[in-house]
Amino acid sequence: MVNPEKLLIERLAPAFAQVAGTPVDPSIRRGRHADFQCDGALGLGRRLGRDAREVAADVLRLARLGDLCPTARVAGPGFIELDLDPARLGTLLADIAADPRLGVPRTDRPETVLVDYSGPNTAKEMHVGHLRSTIIGDAAVRILEWQGHTVLRRNHLGDWGTPFGMLIEHLLDIGEAEAAHESSVGDLTGFYQAARRAFDADEAFRERSRRRVVALQAGDPSTLRPWHVLVAASKAYFTTVYTRLGVRLTEDDFFGESHYNDRLPSVIEELSAAGLLRESEGAQCVFPEGFTNREGEPLPLIVRKSDGGFNYAATDLAAVRQRVREEGATRLLYVIGAPQREHLEMVFATARSMGWLPAPTRVEHVDFGYVLGDDGRILRTRAGASIKLVDLLDEAVARARAAIAGKNPDLDADTRAEVARAVGIGAVKYGDLSADRRKDYRFDYDRMLAFDGNTAPYLQYARVRSLSILRRAGIETPDPNVVPIVREPAERELALRLLALPEVIEEVGATLDFHRLTQYLFALATAFTTFFERCPVLRAEPGIRDSRLTLCDLTARTLALGLDLLGIEAPDRM
Ligand code: ARG
């Protein structure tokens, strides 16, 4: 499947190579004065010591763009301005209209990609950091699967370690049934805090907790049983949150820290055999090259504590090794907040020097910033507690319901509830994904729920409008033989946007910069809005009417696909 930019590169790259004697990037982008602009001649002219305009003219002559861009011309200091032939645009549009994938190819290099995301901690409420990881990770899963990769979803639950001593003791104190009830209904914070209070207040409880950790790590059956109760209740609770969010995580994707327990001793053995382990203050450490503290001293990655317990880093090392060696992943994505960068880099560096990440395997930290509240500080409740994720979602849905009731009072109650859910949850996800993930962003209901601007409701609404035109025309799918006529500037702009989808998908699949996909969808919806205002559809003469109906249908399908890849639902009415 071809699209305009690819077609232009195919023609221009060989022409450039001929002029330069070596391959040159034609450097093509959307233009101000033409559909596309090619800047390659500027740099090449400088390199060859020739006038860029002359270079551009040579390239143009060799590229023979007559059928594609009959008016291609040199402009300014040596740009090439390229307007696509309208008939050619029409056939390109007809091609994508006939393609269920809308012109986006499946990857020709499918691989096994492992996505580590969400990762909440047992018996603890999920916080907004986990929300970001879940939303970004889910979008990564969706786009990579859609490109044709095999995707392994991994929810690296914190289900092991020191806190379980006090959690299990507290559970035994209040009784299993009560503990299971509290945790599965989502009062995780209450349960955790009560355990914490007992731990802080009571020396005997502290002592019991410490003994309990040892028993847990030794696999004592009477300790493992209550541990299972806690973990199962938390898993059930997390699953309700995932269902609510509409993300693709299921219990089959839960591979908690405990999953790697059996492999920890052999990780230590391999590290030790490779001579990488050193003892420091009783703990077993790796000192990966290039990591130092503020004083310039080598920084340790502690893999086994002085009390003999393994920790977070040991588990992550076991996980990397297993994911590559046993599960065959060649690309590993860790969707984790930026504060864990150093930890991950030290783990990756250690794994690399152990040969656990052999080429062509790549590992990437898909990092993200904090979610901030109105005051510009990390999002918390007024009382200073961390906000419960479900409360956040409930509030978004409630606000969406009110907005929809105002906009379309005719919707029946069930439909309104459905639409409010899609809009409310969609707005939260879109608000997250439309921010550059590396930066912090401000959580603002009003902004993310606005029907104008770069928001989920705006895109969802643009799709509803295009569907309603089709509905009023009395057709479900337009005639597949229609070749769109691209005449008006608004039609041309919309056509170029529709045809640019493959590049965006390719870029986002590589970078996981989802704000590039949201920018694309926003530009598409904006182009559609202009088209909608300037180009009558139903009242147009028959040929034009069919052509415009096809453009409406393509817009609706592209928006639905783009939103779906972001994990956002697109309601048919709102
Ligand atoms: N449970 C961790 C946390 O809450 C996140 C786990 C991330 N994944 C990993 N492989 N370390 O911070």
Please give a quick description of this structure.
The chain is of the alpha/beta class. Helix content is 54%, strand content 9%.
Per-chain topology:
Elements lengths: L3 H17 L7 E3 L5 E3 L1 H9 L3 H12 L9 E3 L3 E4 L3 H12 L14 E5 L11 H20 L2 E5 L8 H12 L1 H9 L3 H14 L1 H15 L3 H25 L18 H10 L3 E4 L2 E4 L14 E4 L7 H14 L5 E7 L3 H13 L8 E7 L2 E2 L16 H19 L5 H21 L7 E2 L2 H4 L7 H17 L16 H11 L1 H11 L2 H21 L7 H24 L9
Parallel strand pairs: 5-6, 5-10, 10-11, 12-13
Antiparallel strand pairs: 1-2, 2-4, 3-4, 7-8, 8-9
Helix pairs in contact: 1-3, 2-3, 4-18, 5-19, 6-7, 6-8, 6-9, 6-10, 7-10, 8-9, 12-13, 14-15, 17-20, 17-21, 18-20, 18-21, 19-20, 20-21
Arginine (ARG) binds next to helix 12 and strand 10.
Structural notes for this entry:
Helices cover 54% and strands 9% of the residues. α13 (341-353) links the parallel β10 and β11 (362-368). The two termini are 34 Å apart. α4 (86-97) packs across α18, α5 crosses α19 (501-511) and α17 (456-472) crosses α20 (514-534). The protein has helices at residues 4-20, 40-48, 52-63, 86-97, 128-147, 163-174, 176-184, 188-201, 203-217, 221-245, 264-273, 312-325, 341-353, 389-407, 413-433, 445-448, 456-472, 489-499, 501-511, 514-534, 542-565; strands spanning 28-30, 36-38, 73-75, 79-82, 112-116, 150-154, 277-280, 283-286, 301-304, 331-337, 362-368, 371-372, 441-442. It has a four-stranded antiparallel β-sheet with strand order 1-2-4-3. The longest helix is centred in the middle third of the chain and has 25 residues, at 221-245. The model has no long low-confidence stretch (mean pLDDT 94). The chain contains 21 helices and 13 strands. It is an alpha/beta fold and 574 residues long. It binds arginine.
